[in-house]
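Researcher: Here's a chain I'd like modeled. Treat it as a single chain, no partners, no ligands.
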Amino acid sequence: MADDFELDTDDLKRRMDGAIQALRTEFASLRTGRASASMLEPIMVDAYGSPTPINQVGTVNVPESRMVTINVWDKGLVGKVEKAIRESGLGINPQLNGTIIMLPIPELNEERRRELTKVAGDYAERARVAIRNLRRDGMDQIKKAKDGMAEDDQKIWEAEVQDLTDTYIGYVDKALETKQAEIMQV
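Model: Modeled as a single isolated chain. Structure tokens:
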């Protein structure tokens, strides 16, 4: 019965890819001292009675390396967008120019850079935990099919899951290393 066991490694890969993608999204929201439209993605604006992402109430542009602009489509929402940015904890002071909100990105000081590298490390650790949980799921599938499976086959499947886990943990480590270097770059 278990001789025909086939672990769905494609599903494991897809789920691990999801963990990596979530990590990239979290990294994109970290401020690095350079302007990026993605840093505004987590901010929600109370528009028309429901929380709405900023990119759905205006056009977000990065005209230069230290400036983000938001051209709000509805004049009535300019104040709400400005308030949402001020309360977001990004540490950016929005400047109004009609329906355009300008966000000058200040230089990061050394202390703030170190804090951000720790936050990036926390994000990476969460991604590692997610990948390890997926590894455990794969190992559990192998253990459930263990009855009637040759011990060599079991070891082969376990080694494949472990190799997949090691590969994805390596991706997380590389992404963290890159992000920390980007944050510490002056």
